[in-house]
Amino acid sequence: MRNLALGALSLVVVARAERPLVGRLAEAVERRRWGLFQRLPLPRLLRDGLAVLGMDYTIYVWHVLTHKVPFLWRFHLMHHVDMDMDSTTALRFHAMDMLISIPWRAAQVAVLGTSRRALSLWQAFFFASVLFHHSNLRLPARLERRLADVLTTPRMHGIHHSTVQAETDSNWSSGLSLWDHLHGTFRMDVMARDDRIGVPAYRDPKKMRLGASLAMPFREQRDAWVQR
Ligand SMILES: [Zn+2]
Predict the structure, then answer these.
(1) pLDDT per residue over 72-92, tens digit each?
(2) By the number of CB atoms within 10 A of the CB, which of 22, 91, 110, 169 ranks highest?
(3) Residue 225: inside a domain, yes or no?
């Protein structure tokens, strides 16, 4: 219920601020042929395909930044403190995390040259992928390994949610797993264990209630990877 409530707040930001703003920007990008892929002498379908790939890659970059830039980590932290991963974790994002990602999203669209259609395609793919890789689906190990060659899978993303920093610093992809394969940040060599999900310095269930979760970015920050 808590995750759904936090997700509802985030959804308000996405629906009221991000979607209208970035949607209008994508229309302008298409009309004026702004951005990298709009300028390529290629059929529209190919340009859109490349833009979807570009969006997926630059979300990988944004995800790394949300961990490595302390100001951004304050807001992303609330997503990672969940000690029990399932599809509701996919919605457990701080509304401010959504708000501060809008300039990045706008830059992605303007620099890559993402049309309205490419943006809608990417949004649908991204949302489905996020629900899938945060889920607690237990897929047959061999099937999952095959799938992880191409997509971000639950076990793969479970390793990113580990309490061990060296494991969290891997599997940054949110859609195609290609980016982790290319950057050498792909890991499937450890078992994602249910008792090792979360952030070591934030494991007090009382501090994860709705109000405390929302206040998290505005409180004094602890060293996240040191157990208290
Ligand atoms: Zn993360």
Answers:
(1) 999 999 999 999 899 999 999
(2) 22
(3) no
